[in-house]
Every structure is written in C-alpha cells, then in structure tokens.
Design a protein that fits this description.
- The structure is a single chain.
- With 71 residues, the chain is mainly β.
- Helices cover 7% and strands 45% of the residues.
- It has one helix at 61-65, and strands at residues 14-17, 20-31, 36-42, 48-53, 58-60.
- A 5-stranded antiparallel beta sheet has the order 4-3-2-1-5.
- Strand 2 (20-31) and strand 3 (36-42) form a beta hairpin.
- The longest helix is centred in the last third of the chain and has 5 residues, at 61-65.
C-alpha cells in the first residue's frame, strides 16, 4: 500500500490510524502548511475527541473495503 500525502486527503474523509484499522475517524481540517490532518471521533464514553495526525500515519477506510491493508 502506498503512503498517503497531505494532498490525498479532503475534509470529510473517513480515515483510520495505521496502528489500528478498527479506529475510524473523520478528517475535519487539512493543514497543508503544517502537513497535518485534524481528525475527530467519538470515544467509548460518547465524548467528542480531536487530534492532529501526519498523513503518513493514516489510511482511508475505502482501502479497507478494497481489502488493502497496511503492514
């Protein structure tokens, strides 16, 4: 699987962290100058969480549907 770059993401993309493909987040902001993507998710307690990730840390959920997994 190819590594994504910042240009490959847009707001609203459903993404996952490469360390855990069951942890689904939504890209809510793309920060091209900082090479970071702000992602949001709801934790186990129902609380909204947000964090920034580098594009190299993320995969797109569409890859999972196609059977493309990171290793």
């Amino acid at each position: 699987m190819a590594t994504y770059t910042i240009k490959d993401f847009k707001k609203g993309d459903r993404v996952y962290h490469l360390s855990n493909d069951e942890f689904i987040m939504v890209a809510i902001e793309i920060h091209e100058n900082a090479n970071e993507i702000s992602c949001q998710w709801i934790d186990k307690n129902g609380e909204k969480q947000c964090a920034e990730f580098m594009p190299e840390e993320l995969g797109k959920t569409e890859d999972l549907r196609l059977g493309i997994y990171s290793t």
